Amino acid sequence: MRRIIPIAPHRTRGLPPPAMPTGAAPDGALLRDALGRPLRDLRISVTDRCNFRCSYCMPAEAFAHGHAWMQHSELLRFEEITRLARCFVARGVRKLRITGGEPLLRRGLERLIEQLAALRTPDGAPLELALTTNGTLLARRARALKDAGLQRVTVSLDALDEALFARINGVGASPRGVLEGIDAALAAGLVPLKVNVVVRRGSNEGQIVPLARHFRGSGVALRFIEYMDAGGAHGWRMAQVVPSVQVLARLQREFPLAPLAPAAPGETATRYAWLGAGGQPDARLGEIGLISSVTQPFCHECCRARLSMDGKLFLCLFATQGYELRDVLRSGASDAELDAAIAAIWSARHDRYSALRTSLSPEARQAPRVGMSYIGG
Ligand code: SAM
Ligand code: SF4
Ligand code: SF4
Fold first, then answer.
1. Given CA atoms 90, 73, 232, 164 in this order, what sign does their dihedral have?
2. From the alpha carbon of 376, which atom of ligand 1 is closest?
3. Is the pLDDT of residue 13 over 60?
4. Which ligand has an atom closest to residue 227 CA?
5. Residue 206: CB partners within 8 Å, gap ≥ 6?
6. Chain-centre distance for alpha carbon 133
């Protein structure tokens, strides 16, 4: 078999290529990486563009006029994404999440959803198919996305306060449009719906309780996420992280909550139920989730791969380089060759940045990383 794992650096960073994975890729079996972690979850970023300029992700000064956005020919075509997804599914992936940038900016996204929704596991079961969005375009797209086969959405919303939200999103957008998107998604049946809040000290920690009050009773799973030192989070400092234990303490001062058992192995959120009128957990009210990516890393269970819009495969949110799958695809590789590339890359994976963060040298911690807007959250 010819060698088919060329590696390319992230286009804007000019990083040196990583070492090639070595060793034989297991044949046909479900994959485990070098630390024994399966491949279960594929995040597919479909665009590098966004209509927000969140200060911690795509700050306006770094993504101003003149920024070199990708050309359409650089993006994976929907058929290419679907073909790759099919290969990943054959190797164990059961959950696909569409992300970006802002995925709803990718024209004709419903066509991709239709193609992905038609994929089946080797046992013939449908996959979990979800999308993460800032919600601004959701009100008018929710029904079409659902009809195309999307099952669930996660909507990002960091504040309800108009002025604060406008500052955070960097373009002056109001939370009202996002709330309308959430309502439309609920009405279209894109459930269970999650709302993600990235909590940053000195920014939106005062929104924890108002957000909880707003969503209690809506059926929504509200998830508070620790602010991470991901690419895009320029000038990140540990002092800006509000540990989940502090978020929980704030919530418990206002609302009685009951811990919930994990719904699935490897679940990233610690979950809590609202108590209903009788003092019993009431799932109809929704739930709270805490994602402690910084203070309690879950690398030992991380089964996620990330595919960028231009076809690079990243093995960690904090990766500095990606494996070039687009060139493999476009070189005329067979499905068997694509499969061998994926198997070799995943089998050699040993990434666990968050688990190592505190023991890494300052240089390693500050290594230039791809942005969250490039490989999704
Ligand atoms: N544009 C869509 C959105 O905002 O939902 C999808 C892409 S965005 C990169 C995915 C998620 O990553 C969002 O929920 C965002 O809040 C989160 N995110 C971005 N930068 C982050 C950081 N430094 N720490 C924690 N979460 C971050
Ligand atoms: Fe855009 Fe999402 Fe990044 Fe905000 S977090 S800038 S909405 S990609
Ligand atoms: Fe997974 Fe990397 Fe995050 Fe650890 S730091 S949980 S390996 S993405």
1. negative
2. 9
3. no
4. 1
5. 161
6. 10
E-state strands within the chain? 7-9, 41-45, 95-99, 128-133, 152-156, 194-199, 221-226, 257-259, 270-274, 287-291, 304-307, 312-314, 321-324
Span from the CA of 365 to the centroid of ligand 1 (angstroms): 20
Instruction: Render pLDDT for 213-262 as a digit per residue (tens, 0 to 9).
Output: 999 999 999 999 999 998 878 889 999 999 999 999 999 999 999 999 98
Of the residues 43, 49, 102, 167, which should be mutated to test ligand 2's pocket, given the most ligand atoms within 8 Å of the CB?
102
Question: pLDDT value at position 37?
Answer: 97
Helix count and strand count (H, E) for the chain: 12, 13
Distance from the alpha carbon of residue 81 to the mean position of ligand 3, in angstroms? 23
DSSP letter string over 103-137? Answer: GGGSTTHHHHHHHHHT-B-TTSPBPEEEEEE-STT
Which residue's CA is minimally distant from atom 8 of ligand 2? 101
pTM comes to 0.94
